[in-house]
Prior knowledge:
By secondary structure, this protein is an alpha+beta fold. The strands form six sheets. It has a six-stranded mixed beta sheet, sandwiched between helices. A three-stranded antiparallel beta sheet has the order 6-7-8, with no helix packed on it. The chain is globular. It contains eight helices and 17 strands. It has helices spanning about 1-20, 65-75, 95-120, 165-170, 235-250, 275-285, 305-315, 325-335, and strands at about 30-40, 45, 55-65, 80-85, 125-135, 150-155, 180-185, 190-195, 195-200, 205, 210-220, 225, 260, 265, 270, 290-295, 320-325. It has a domain at about 125-220: PDZ domain (Pdz3 Domain), CATH 2.30.42.
Amino acid sequence: MKKLNIRWLSFFIVVLVLFGLTFVKLPYYVTKPGDATEIAPHIQVDGGYGEKGSFSLMTIKVGPANPYTYLLAKMNKYDEIVPEENIKADGESDEDYMKRQLQLMKSSQENAMIAAYTKAGKKVDYTFNGVYASYVMKGMPAYGKIEVGDRIKSVDGKTYDSADKMVSYISRQKAGTSVRFVLERNGKDITQKVKLKPFKEEPNRVGIGVSLFTDRDVKVSPSIKVDIENIGGPSAGLMMSLEIYNQLTKEDETHGYAIAGTGTIDADGTVGPIGGIDQKVVAADKAGKDIFFAPNDKGDPNSDYKNAVKTAKDIKSNMKIVPVDTMQDALNYLNKLKEKSS
């Protein structure tokens, strides 16, 4: 009886220790495959057409690491452990981080609307208010030179009417290149030269470590209702633009297929790269999607598309991985599809 009590006591202590570890916060975040969320229930064009298949946006689950989740992430191939400073700005709260992600989603929604309504030949008007810095990554070149809230007036003497175009220009430069920024801060213009360098977690991608968002007012006709809550970031832009376009036009672009994908979208329909492509492919495959659109980055050997193909092969997925540089690339592929047999 005494040995039995000791065993139970030992078991209780182990459980208590494991439970306690969940409250120990480490200076890391864990990201893992999220969900495939069908867009149609969340975006509705007034008088819009229906669809037999579906367009889905992809999410990644992000959470603070504790010893338990850290060890689990070490054992799961498609979980990633990311230093806290690569997720949040210095001193930024979880609440402020989420607000920033939702602001990026709002900008992405606006881009998707402009691109889709323009492509469908529908009425769209917008007022551009500027490109602003919403986050500066510690340890990257912009830290200490660009501040949250700065308005980016020009880059290397060029002006841009969207954050996506500005980011696209910067990402095409090589590591070590100095980029000249003219900023507006507290009503005054400031010039800063910032040298690009690779991201620690993505050595094939260069940048300065700043998240940008486009501030503008958009008006469209027919009217549209967007109700996407608690999903942040800009990576759903492409899929939202396809859903909106599909509701605006009579032909059903899904042809009965379950279609997923990822990529930022610019107002002119240009598709940009995103993070976490491997995790999104895993999530889409798990959700049983037929087709997955991935940013092609104009054929770059390290593009999201190339990495998506590798991941799909690794997990033995039957999904068709399709490269896209523009919204029109995706529509061209869909227009060639035959109706999916039931």
